[in-house]
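Quick check before the chapter quiz. The format below is the same one you will see on the exam, so make sure you can read both the input and the output lines.
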Amino acid sequence: MLRPRPRASRAISTRSTRPPSLGSARPTAPPSSSIGDGDCCIAHRVFSGILRSDVTCTNCGFSSTTFEPCMDISLDLDPGHNNCLGVANPKPHVRNGERSVAGMSSKVSTLMRCLERFTRAERLDAEQKYFCERCKERQESLKQMSIRRLPLVSCFHIKRFEHSTVKKMSRKVDHSLQFPFSLDMTPYLSSSILRSRYGNRIFPSEACDSEAVSELPSEFEIFAVITHSGKLDAGHYVTYLRLNNQWYRCDDAWVTRVDEHTVRSSQAYMLFYVQKTLYYKACERGAAV
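Here is the expected output.
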């Protein structure tokens, strides 16, 4: 049964900073790398990362930063992009290094676009005014998410549901989503977001912060895709698993080989990416057996 997944995250550290142009003092240290590891639970060691949330006052530029652990990242599909044009057997092709599917609109949702939207600064509305410690009153603000620490395995949950408070109903979103087999997470890291926001001015004051360098490699390889067929309240899950560059379709007790095109054209609900170095190490071990 496919149900909306509420985001269960716990803030683990907060701090307030001012942009370098405002003469901010050196910020306090962020959470240590051990935070979010779940007391050495194997699931946390594999899947746990740390997100960074910055809320910036639009009046004075004062920022409040929160760190929180995450086991997966929930991503919104681009609104209004139900773009499959009904081609029976679309053929994949490569253009400018990016693989796409012929017969689909150029506006089709992509995983990269979803990640860009996730890390894009958003203006909080009047009802969400945040209390600025510098202005000493509630002000309009901008909120921006980024990834401070990557996990060994990055899990992305695609929000394939919509809720209407007016019509008081929910529906499943069947929009198409293109996703790469190789994924570079560098643009979505806190270090990249801070650099684009402040330039190199931010790094001298944060030299001891370890914010400028991710603790783990940022290049990932896909190794599993979970799909869902059916409606919001009922349906069937199928997993595509990649072993030694061969894809397998795991449907209950049946496991069959499939090609890349079958995986790329599937309606992804969850995507799993492992660090590229770990993926190829696993492939080497499998080939040696």
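If your answer matched, good. The chain has one domain: 13-288.
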